[in-house]
Amino acid sequence: MRARGIGRAFGALLLCCGLLAGCGKRPEQERQPPGRVDAAQHDAFFLWAGVKAPEVLAKARTIYLLDGEVRAGSPARFVPLRPAVPHVHHAEIWLVVRLERLDWEEPVWRRVLADLDRWQTAGNRLAGLQLDFDARTRGLDRYAAFLAEARRRLPRRYKLSITGLMDWSAGGDPAALAALGSVVDDVVLQTYQGRRTVPGYEAYLRSLARLPFPYRLGLVEGGAWRAPPALARDPHFRGYVVFLLPR
Known about the structure:
This protein is α/β, with parallel strands linked by helices.
């Protein structure tokens, strides 16, 4: 989930799109097309930097928007990727920070918290903060400790979301998964890498039932996808989020 910069036209486009919102919606499990992911059949999206806002966002209920990155290097620093605060009125939004490291210093925390307040003050329906980090399955205990610190620093008015890997369900330590689930409000497991669905994703899906927390699945626009029948019966499954690709 890597990209750069979103133009100022994004906010204006979404304001116009908001006038079109309100079409009838059905449960996502019923709208899921077989074979390929059709963004038009969904209402929750990732819009990353460098991706022009498509018309499909007119009916969005939830949008995850990249604000910046905490990159590797010394010292740790926040790199902003958005030139202006978004103004979205028809959908709930999440401020997303992509991470390459977990050893945040105080200036990074202050910047992220300040951006959250700026987005909310601008009149957005801000759900909270999403952290996009490819935490290795064998390092989930360390990641859970970082998330506990993030939750401690985050004002209670903001929820905490994370992205995750499908392998967590197959090989994740149960104690680490439970610790992680106890501090986050929203988990989106990525079924793709780059522009393609992960080959053999069906095998990973069979182990999702062992996750001790609710989750959604991130699908890549146009990617291969066939949901197994058992998925809709999983009480922890909360639907899909589509990662939109550049046109």
